[in-house]
Amino acid sequence: MTKKTSFISMLLCAIFSTSIAQTYFTDDFSDGNISDWTQYDADGDGHKWFAIDLSSYIFASATIASFSWHLGAFTPDNYIVSPAIDLTNASGSIVLKYAYGSFADAPKHSEKYSVYVTTANDLTTLQGATAIHTETLANPETRETNSLDVSTFAGQTIYVTFRHHDCTNKAAMVIDDVVVRAPLNNDAFLKSVSLNRYSLPSTDNTLSMEVTNNGTDAISSLEVNWNDGTTDNISTINVNIAAGATASVDHPTPVNYANIVELNLTATITAVNGTADGDTSNNTQNDILFNTVTQTSTKALLIEETTGTWCGYCPKGAVGLDHISTTYPNTTVPIAVHGGNGDPMEVPEYKNGISNFTSGYPDGVIDRATTSDPSASSLEDAYNSLLFPINPVDLDVTSTLSGSDLTITADATFYTNISSANYKLAGIIIENGVTGTNSGYDQVNAYSGGSTAMGGYENLPNPVPAAQMVYDHVGRALLGGFDGVDNSIPVSISAGDNFQTTFNYTIPATSNQDDMYIAIILINSDTGVVINAFQKSINESLSTSDLELASAVSIYPNPATDKFNIAFDASNANYAITITDMLGRTVLAQQHNNLSGNNTIEISTNQFSAGQYIVTIATSNTSYSKRLIINN
Length: 632
Fold this sequence. Notes:
- The chain folds into four domains: 6-181, Jelly Rolls, CATH 2.60.120.200; 188-292, Immunoglobulins (Immunoglobulin-like, Sandwich), CATH 2.60.40; 301-541, Immunoglobulin-like (Sandwich); 544-630, Immunoglobulin-like.
- The chain is built from seven helices and 36 strands.
- The strands form eight sheets. Strands 1, 3, 4, 7, 10 and 12 form a six-stranded antiparallel beta sheet that branches. Strands 2, 5, 6, 8, 9 and 11 form a six-stranded antiparallel beta sheet that branches.
C-alpha cells in the first residue's frame, strides 16, 4: 500500500520545487490492506468492499471491489471511507483523482456509485451528505479515471467516501489509485480508443481517441503512439483542449495492412505540450483488437426481447420486433424470449440465460453485448449504431426432414486468422403465428384505451383475450444450449476455414412448419457476445428433395368444412398421409403406393371434430407438414 501524509508531501515539495504537484493523500491498495479505511454495510447483507488482485485483468494492479452479484444477486449499499486527510495547510486548487470501472461484460457492467467528501466519517454524517459525484458505469471492462475538484475543503481535515448503491444483479465495481493533490499543469487522460474491429486489406482505418484534460493548462499538442507489437507510429497532433474538457482526437497515421493480419494494438500519449505528462498512469489503452478479412460477410444483429404475457408494457416489444423484422429482414434476427409468471411460451433455459444480460421486462438485448429499449424507434437507433458491414464469418444452415424430425447442419465460414478462438455455435428455433386457447395466452395490455400509438394495442382491451392474440418471433427451443456447443469451433482458425455442427429437432404436432425458422449464432465464449447471427425458414433450409415436396403439396380449402383436398405432383413413389390432432394423436393414416404425375386426394371431415390438425405427407426420403383448420 502506498500512502502519503500532508506533512511528508509538503516537506518533499519544499525540498524539491514548488512546481511539483503537492500530494496530500494517495493509496494504490498494492499490499491488499484496507484496515485503515472505515466500512459501513448499510444494507446489512454482510457483504462489504474488499481488496482484490486484478493484476491479470484490466486494472493491472491490486484494487478494492464491491459486489452486486456473487453466487446470487445483491442490492448493495456499501460505504468505504478513507483515513483522515489533512488539508489544514492547503490552499488553492485541490483535486481528488481515482480509477474506477467494472470487470463485467455488458450489460452486467452498469454499477452505480457515489463519491462524498465530509469532515466526519460516521454513517449518520455520510447518509446526510450530498454526493459530489454520482455515476452509473457506462463502459464494460474498462479502466477509467475521474478527477473531482475538492478545493472548497482547503483548510479542513476531510474523509473521502466511495458508496456502491442502487443497483442489483450486475457483477462488481472497482476503485483504485485514490489521490488527493494539487492539480498538475500537464495531465492528459486517454479515456478510450475506437477503431474498426475488422477491415478489408489495404484499407485506411482511423484510430480515434477520447482525451480528457485533467491538468490546469490547456493542451495544444499531444504526442501519440500506436504500436502493433513491432512498429511504432508516433505523431504530434495539434489540438485545443481546455482544462477539464474532453475532445476526440484522430491519429493521422491510419491502421492499414495489405495482408491478412490479427493484431493487438496499444495506444499511448507520450508527451503533452511538448513535455512529459505529469501523470502517465492514465495515458495508455491496451488490447485494441484489429483483423483484416479476405472478403466481406453478411452481418445480422441478434435482437432478443424479454417479454411475457403477464407484462403490461411488453406489447411495446412485440411492435418493436415487428418493425425491425419487416424493415431489416436480412440483417436482423429478432426473437421474443418469453418467461415468468406462468407464460405458456416460456423456455426455462432460454429465460434463465437471457436474464444474465438484462434486469427487466420488456428489454432488448442486442448481440448479447448491449441493451436497448425494445420500442421500434430505439431498436432502429440501435440498429443504425451497431450494425457494421464487415464481419469475420458467414453463417448458413441446411436441414433434412424425416417425418417431423429435423437434422440441422450449422455452417460457419471464416475470412480471417484467429490464433486463440473460444467460439461456439448454437441454434434457436423461432415460430411465428403462435396461438393458444387458455387464459395463459391472454396478453396484459397497459396501452389499452391510451393516447399513445402502440401498433393497435391502444385499441385492444386489457388483457387482450387469447382468441385475439397471435404471437410472432417466439423463441421455441435452444439447440446446443444457451451458450453453444463445446468444441464446435477450434482454437486456431485460418482464413477460408469452414466448420459444421449438427443439431436435431422434432417439430411438435402443435407447430406449423410453414411458420418456423432456424437461427444460427456464433458466440465468443470469452465475452458472451454474439459475433454473427443468421436465420432461415425451415422450408428454406430443407434439402432439395424436401423442398421439392413442400413446393409440390397444396391443401385446400383451409379452413375446411365438409371436405378438403391434398394435391401434389408425385414422382413414382409411395406416399403416406398422416393427420394428427394438437395432442399428437393420429386421427387418420392412409398409404398410397406407386403414385406419379398430378394427384388429388379428397378427405371427408365427417370423422373430425372442429379444431386444428397437422397434415403430413411423406415418402421414404422426405416429408412435409402443414396445419389444417376444420370448421364443422
